[in-house]
Amino acid sequence: MFRALPLALVAACTAPPGASDACLPIAVAGEDLAGEVGTDVTLDGSASPLCGDGPVAYGWSLARTPTSSTIDDSAFTDNGSATAVATSFVPDVPGSYAIGLIVSQGGATSNPDLVVVQVGSTEQLPTALAGDDVIGRVGERARLDGSASFDPEGAPLAFRWSMASLPDGSQLTTNDLWDAHTSGPSFLPDVPGSYVLALTVDDGSSTSAPDYASVDAASDDRAPVADAGPSRTLPACESDLFVLDATASYDPDGDPLTYRWGVLDVPDGSAATDAALSDPIGARTTFAPDVDGAYTFWLEVDDGIVPSPKDVVTLATGGPNRAPSADAGADQIVRNVRAACVTTPEGPRCEPCPVVRFRLDGTSSTDVDEDALRYRWDVPGGLGVSDANVGAVDVWTPATLIPDSGVTLTTSWDLTLSVADCADVDVDTVRITLECRGDAP
Question: 75 by DSSP, 3-state: which?
């Protein structure tokens, strides 16, 4: 049993902005060693290749120790520091100690290198050799080679590989290794970065100390861009349900995207969590606030190779409602409608005016907040109407209008349109006019 690997030893190598990828220091911690409990073990990083003549910093740390060991990085005593090119420590219990070295120069930091010190064992332990580090590509199979591992007594070996560390964003586990119990496993890197794999071998009676190999995976893929939309305060008609829209997100390479939403911050008194999102993996989702105030959400999109940086949007309740503006359309007049007249003993008698239809359209009514609108036409008695509760309607004149012979009968009606959003109403009036003349016999 060993302690966990420190984060400092699993970080990918870094270079300062503008630095050449070809000029990075390389940590070389030296060959694996054997030691005894209570006796100094000397470590030497002087074989580490450097970049130029800039100042150099060395960092030694205990990556793994036996479970019963109580020492930590303060055990490195040479020059009173763990930052010397050569240092030493005194092991306190038998077992395997893995010591990591990183080298920094001019703002650039190497990948870690590990040296294993086997302490106090009288057995002829097998030796795991994980092979050379590998340069790979995202989505392409990376292969490792532990075939140089050996047992001093020539016993057959059983191999066991595991994922020791992964780059940020990777979803891989040891279960994603093919042939993890052979000398030559492989896997598919899922994101760019450095993967560290550990190898132990077993001869049937004892297990080796672990050895490590890294796979540095690169990618030509360009990261997608998440767009959660603009932050805003919603008007009253929209404050009961937020609509979150990621459809403006895109991938520079045209790859299809998957979406992931989360709740980042809520106002005081709110108990809302990610569970309040109607579809947390949809391009569009909704969220019902439980108290008034500002809610912040994050969005991440993924093209199947690398996720985007998160984008955030804040939506707040409590904005003032702006009333709609009703527009019933222009006044209308129909002229030259004729009614037939005849001569009777009692004098001229005219037929009723023909029924005339008018088309009224209130759909040019507007709402600055883009709220859904409801329509209502108030129609005077005598007029017919197709449907008084829609934006555009047909109305028609009554069949009871009778002009006098040789006289034009002018009749007008005022119709009122009411337009409402969730809170306010506006009205507009339109006049329709019919001119009907009784034709003299």
Answer: helix
Better-scored residue on pLDDT, 218 or 10:
218
123 vs 157: CA distance, rounded Å: 16
Q: What's the CA gap between 103 and 112, in Å, rounded? A: 8
Q: Please name the residue ranges forming H helices in 114-240.
A: none
Structure-token match 């001569």, residue found? 343
Domain map (residue ranges) of the chain: 1-122, 131-219, 232-319, 332-439
- Return d(Cα 426, Cα 369) in angstroms, integer: 14
Q: For the chain, percent helix, then strand, then coil, each to nearest 5?
A: 5, 45, 55
pLDDT digits (tens, 9 = 90+) for 312-363: 999 998 767 889 999 999 999 999 999 999 999 888 999 999 999 999 999 9
Dist CA 312 CA 294 (whole Å): 13
pLDDT band with cut points at 50, 70 and 90 for residue 123: low
Q: Which CATH superfamily is domain 232-319 in?
A: Immunoglobulins (2.60.40.10)
pTM of the model: 0.41
CATH number of 1-122: 2.60.40.10
> CATH homologous superfamily for 131-219?
Immunoglobulins (2.60.40.10)
Question: CATH topology of 131-219 equal to that of 232-319?
Answer: yes
Phi-psi region of 347 (alpha: psi -120 to 50; beta: other; left: phi over 0): left
Please give the sequence-ordered ranges of beta strands (E in DSSP) within 203-308, or none if there are none.
211-218, 232-235, 242-245, 258-265, 284-287, 294-302
Kindly report the CA angle at 197 between 194 and 198, in degrees rounded to 5?
145
Q: What is the percentage of the chain residues whose pLDDT exceeds 90?
A: 68
Question: Which CATH number is correct for 332-439, 1.10.3470, 2.60.40, 3.30.70, 1.25.40?
Answer: 2.60.40
